[in-house]
Amino acid sequence: MDSDATVFYCALSRVFAYKCAAGRHLLEVFGSPGAVFGACRDELSAVLHHAEPYIDQLLDPALLEEARREVEWAGRYGIDLLGYGEPGYPHRLAECDDAPLLLYAKGPANLDAMRILAVVGTRKASWTGREACRRLLEKLASLDEKPLIVSGLALGIDGCAHAAALACGLPTVGVLPCGLDEIYPRQHRDLARRMLEQGGLVTDFACGTAPAAFTFLRRNRIIAGLADATLVVESYRKGGSLITASLAASYSREVFAVPGRLSDVSFEGCNRLISHQEAQLVVDEDTLPIVLGWLHAPRPSRRQSVIRHDDPPLRRTLLHALEALSPATMDDLVMRTGIPPQKLAVELLDLELAGRVVADGTKFCVSL
Question: Which range of residues forms the domain containing residue 71?
Answer without folding.
Answer: 3-76
